[in-house]
Amino acid sequence: MGTLENMKLLMKNFKNWLGIGLRIKFTQTKQLKVVLRSGENYVLWRNYILALLPLVKKGMIANYAITCLLEDKIPFGHDFVIIHGWIGENNKSNGDVIDVFLNEDYRFLDVKDRVVVDIGANIGDSAIYFALNGATKVISLEPYPYSFAFAVKNVKENNLDERILLLNAGYGRDGTELVNENLESNHSTALEPVENGRRIIIYSLKTLVEKFKLDGAVLKMDCEGCEYDLCNEDEEVLRRFSEVQIEYHYGVKGLVEKLRKSGFNVKHTKSRRIFYPGAEKPMMLGYIYAIKQRQQD
Q: What is the count of structural domains for the chain?
């Protein structure tokens, strides 16, 4: 499991906590039998158990948390959000649902009564979060048809069709790309053009600003490396945003300088080195937070 805290959560909620912890830590067992302290028995995919721990940490009773996971529900505020496609059989996982709704990784952004440009929409979790936090409009870009289809379903399921505009598109230099429409993309899938596939539009920020007449908007970026194309944007374009949050994947070089030069106060988290099999080089992950400086009278 990796942490003492997780083992304590297992011990508190499961009679067979030690066996669960050892199997998850040292084996590739796909399904595990779990026995709750209440005596109830379940056979769960290991990704359900890993998703369960943050829920019980937040105070949910284990059997109720399991029911929510099986019904694609995630608690948020005094209600639930329905997110399909983030967890499933055969240990499939997608989206950043725990970080978005439980840990609220985007709480830095003040989206109330603002338009949000959401680059890297994935299955729509962040877009739904922004809408539920008062954004007047969320313009979301997701290049891969597989994740995009879940985003469409999730937005509709949560009755947010009028607040969230989903675009099956990517970010970068203006143009088009062919993407693999059969790829079961996830939240870590970078945009990789292919020779044969579905043609999607690639939008620059300049084009998005002009197309949607943006001014004082909020920008969120989590697109597995495409964030560095922001360095090619005009400073005047970036000034049309009031706040920016970027998950960077290969260090902050270029991004921080560009934002500061464009008139933002910028801070960032310390980089975490991650070795991801699909990445072209070791990742250096973290967040950049930027707020536009007020103009002096």
A: 2
